[in-house]
Amino acid sequence: MNTPTTATVNISIDVPDLDAGVDFYRRVFGWQEKSRPFPQMAIVDGNNVMVCIHAKPAGSKPTPSEQTRGYSRHWTPVHLDFHVEDFAATISRAKEAGASIEQEYTKPKAVAFCSDPFGNGFCIISK
């Protein structure tokens, strides 16, 4: 029987401007930059997970066979959920930092469907 390989999980977020991407997630969620191993990549501490923010220009291709990268709002079945203590304050910071709040519900639990200024979707959920 094959034994599964233990894997470490990191998250990667593509943005068109590295400094703007790092600044957005720092302002909204308190993520702190740890290093820049390459000029177009920052490693940030996402509070309990390491996140790689990559500068990738609009129009570039993720792989030779895929469509070009764009930063208008785009849907993907994989996204980040942020469970926060202070829902209202986090929503306020997100708006101030340039996020779009697309839908917001307060019952049975506060939840907001959002996108960052680069078109990446995420949810803010009250703890």
Automatic annotation (TrEMBL):
InterPro entries the UniProt entry points to: Glyas_Bleomycin-R_OHBP_Dase (IPR029068), Glyoxalase_6 (IPR041581), VOC_core (IPR037523)
This protein's record includes keyword Lyase: yes
Entry keyword annotation includes Lyase: yes
Top-rank taxon, per record: Bacteria
Domain VOC: 7-127
Keyword set, alphabetical order: Lyase
TM annotation in the entry: none
GO MF, one annotated term: lyase activity
SUPFAM superfamilies (UniProt xref): Glyoxalase/Bleomycin resistance protein/Dihydroxybiphenyl dioxygenase (SSF54593)
Pfam family, one: Glyoxalase_6
UniProt protein name: Putative enzyme related to lactoylglutathione lyase
Organism (species): Povalibacter uvarum
